[in-house]
Amino acid sequence: MNETNQKSESLIAVTGASGHLGRLVIETLLGGNTPANKIVAVVRDPQKIADFAARGVQVRRADYTQPETLDAAFNGVERLLLVSSNEVGERVPQHKNVIEAARKSGVNFLAYTSILKADVSEMQLAADHRETEQVIRESGIPFAFLRNSWYFENYTDQLSSILQHGAVFGSAGDGQVSAASRADYAAAAAVVLASGNHENKIYELGGDAAFTLSELAAEISKQTGSEIVYRDLPVEEYAQALIGAGLPEPMARILADADLGLKRGDLLVNSGDLSRLAGHPTTTLAEAVAFGLKK
Ligand SMILES: NC(=O)c1ccc[n+]([C@@H]2O[C@H](COP(=O)([O-])OP(=O)(O)OC[C@H]3O[C@@H](n4cnc5c(N)ncnc54)[C@H](OP(=O)(O)O)[C@@H]3O)[C@@H](O)[C@H]2O)c1
Predict the structure, then answer these.
(1) pLDDT classification of 8: cutoffs 50, 70, 90
(2) For the chain, which domains are there?
(3) Ligand 1 contact via 64 beta carbon (within 6 Å)
């Protein structure tokens, strides 16, 4: 029996199983060598993933804010993917609860979806991830840090608004971003969960070919025939534009600050880790835009 098959017989849990990334990780595991009954989908509301239960996945209810629910959910789990919480501002205490429950339950491998260059990134968003990584190290549980760059979907989910305004807005200047699709990151996470030799590894994950926001605008122009430009704004103006578009102010400020990080290179990587782990080239900008336009 090879290492991959051995790991596929371990009980593997994925948190955030109702979210975009968690769902894709479970789909990828199901499409590989992992039997459905060896997958534990951890979720706040089991109704949201009734489809996985119907396919034989073990669905267990837990909330990051309720430690006793996490203890029960991790019973017998050997390998765990902690998908970072989307409740920005609450993340560190929530993640601490998950890590402590994992330690108590005897989880022997914990993968965590962090952010690119979490140790040195100056983006405000990176602080929670840096602190979470530290808590994981201190827990003594063997870990893998999946340090993800941006999702393509951060842009392609905005295509209708971009087309309406004839512009991509940002504060990223000529900075390059190594974006990849959620499906690419999910493929890498599934490999790390279902195969061996990832203990105490740090993966810097991003798309194979970086691009600027001007290049993003040019690709959208090319595929739609509409003229789309990139409008670079001072960071305060960009934050106000995001607030005007309906984002809560704290999130708008964090996203505007992230563009300054993009400009500095905090979201740029050429490690090749993502395509190597996923086993295929990452989604290209042209493919991502085409896919986004079809949705
Ligand atoms: N790299 C990037 O570009 C990027 C972009 C956006 C986000 N992210 C980060 O990556 C993570 C995964 O991305 P995604 O697209 O899958 O996000 P998502 O679709 O928003 O999913 C987040 C998941 O976290 C779960 N969750 C939130 N609070 C919870 C709690 N208190 N207890 C248990 N579960 C909780 C949600 O459950 P419910 O369904 O019950 O709400 C959901 O399943 C995000 O949470 C965020 O930290 C990264």
Answers:
(1) low
(2) 3-148+181-205+271-277 (3.40.50.720)
(3) yes
CA of 222 to the centre of ligand 1 (A): 32
Tokens of 142: 């063997």
**What number is the average pLDDT over the span 256-269?**
98
When pLDDT is cut at 50, 70 and 90, the band that residue 1 belongs to is very low
Q: What residue owns the CA closest to ligand 1's atom 22?
A: 19
Give me ligand 1 centre to Cα 87, in Å. Answer: 8
Residue range 173-189: mean pLDDT, rounded? 98
Q: Could you tell me if the CB of 154 is within 6 A of ligand 1?
A: yes
d(CA 119, CA 117): 5
Look-up of token digits 């195969």: 195
> Which residue's CA is minimally distant from atom 13 of ligand 1?
21
How does strand 229-232 pair with strand 176-177?
unpaired
Cα-to-centroid distance, 84 and ligand 1 (Å): 6
Atom from ligand 1 closest to the CA of residue 44: 40
Nearest CA to ligand 1 atom 33: 63
Residue 6 is predicted with a pLDDT of 47
Q: Which atom of ligand 1 is nearest to the CA of 90?
A: 31
Q: Write the pLDDT tens digit of every residue in 206-238.
A: 999 999 999 999 999 999 999 999 999 999 999
Do the Cβ atoms of 231 and 217 come closer than 8 Å?
A: no
- Residue whose CA lies nearest to ligand 1 atom number 7: 86
3-class SS of residue 200: coil
Torsion of CA 157, 163, 165, 167, to 10 degrees: 80
Radius of gyration of the chain (CA): 19
Report which DSSP code applies to 47: G
Find, among 20, 66, 21, 13, the residue nearest to 44 by Cα.
66
What single letter denotes the amino acid at residue 61? Answer: R
What pLDDT digit, counting tens, does each position of 73-128 carry?
A: 999 999 999 999 999 889 999 999 999 999 999 999 999 999 999 999 999 999 99
